[in-house]
Specification:
This protein has about 190 residues and is of the alpha+beta class. It is built from five helices and 13 strands. The strands form four sheets. A six-stranded mixed beta sheet has the order 3-6-8-9-10-11. Strands 5-4-7 form a three-stranded mixed beta sheet, with no helix packed on it. A hairpin with a 5-residue loop joins strand 9 and strand 10.
């Protein structure tokens, strides 16, 4: 990769101010804003199904269920991301206007262009969030959900769910059939 001398690096405060004025969303990593790309219909359907199931379960329980337009700060200096779905039940996030800082659950719907980053650097950064208890990776081309769950020893354990399974989300005390996450989704044969 060749360094781009035209890059304009920003500190976190500059990014947060600048991004509020942009027509497109930008994630922020290592001093640089990166424009978010469009998603597929399948990606959106999965995120909507998961969000709806979580919202219905958590209604009236003091938690917020948020989708891709809500910014997450790993800490106050970044990085800043837009997870596909996240849940926060933390009092400090109740009055948040622009950035969520204490999610207990984050879900990313995988796409070919972002899967490596979602599994690698992004998950490495997410693990720095002290309130995070579960991280879901949801496939958009087959019925598979991977749940990384923080155990009592502080280690991340992986549970893989497939068609016919019920997903257990301990962080929000919820069980949901995997088939509900993929409801009405038709996989392309390409």
């Amino acid at each position: 990769m060749i360094a781009n001398p035209e890059r304009n690096y920003m500190n976190p405060a500059e990014y947060l101010h600048w991004e509020e004025q942009q027509p497109l969303k930008h994630e922020y990593m290592n001093g640089e804003a990166v424009a978010m790309t469009g998603r597929t219909i399948a990606h959106n359907e999965i995120a909507v199904n998961l969000t709806t199931a979580l919202k219905n379960h958590l209604r009236g329980k003091g938690c917020k269920v948020l989708m891709a337009d809500s910014k997450l700060g790993v800490n106050e200096s970044g990085p800043f991301y837009y997870p596909d779905v996240m849940v926060t039940c933390n009092e400090q996030d109740k009055l948040a206007k622009n950035v969520i800082n204490f999610p207990c659950l984050i879900a990313e719907v995988l796409s070919p262009g972002t899967e490596g980053f979602d599994r690698g650097q992004k998950f490495q950064n997410y693990r720095r969030i002290s309130s995070l208890r579960e991280y879901l990776l949801v496939s958009s081309d087959q019925k598979i959900v991977e749940c990384f769950r923080l155990n009592e020893k502080g280690l991340w354990e992986l549970s893989t769910y497939r068609e016919g399974d019920e997903i257990e989300l301990a962080s929000v005390e919820f069980r949901v059939p995997l088939d509900l996450i993929y409801e009405e989704l038709v996989f392309s044969e390409n």
